[in-house]
Amino acid sequence: MDDLEAASAILVNINDRPNTPEKFGQMSNDILKYEFKDSLNCSLTSTSAEQVTTQTL
Asked: What's the superkingdom here (predicted)?
């Protein structure tokens, strides 16, 4: 750790993080699901059926 600091690294103590809200994990999961679905839908609508088959998804 001393070598890292001597090399100008910024060390962050991961135990000094703020408390996460109750249900934070569930909320994060919900957001990721919707973002993934939106990104997948955008990708599929901008790609022709000849380029993407079920097997290549």
From this structure: Bacteria
- Cα-only R_g, the chain: 21
pLDDT digits (tens, 9 = 90+) for 10-19: 998 888 877 8
Task: Give DSSP secondary structure letters for 5-56.
Answer: HHTT-----GGGPPPPPTTHHHHHHHHHHHHHHHHHHHHHHTS-TTT--GGG
Handedness of CA 31, 36, 37, 43 (dihedral sign): positive
Whether this model's pTM surpasses 0.70: no
Q: Which two tokens stand for residue 22?
A: 């109750």
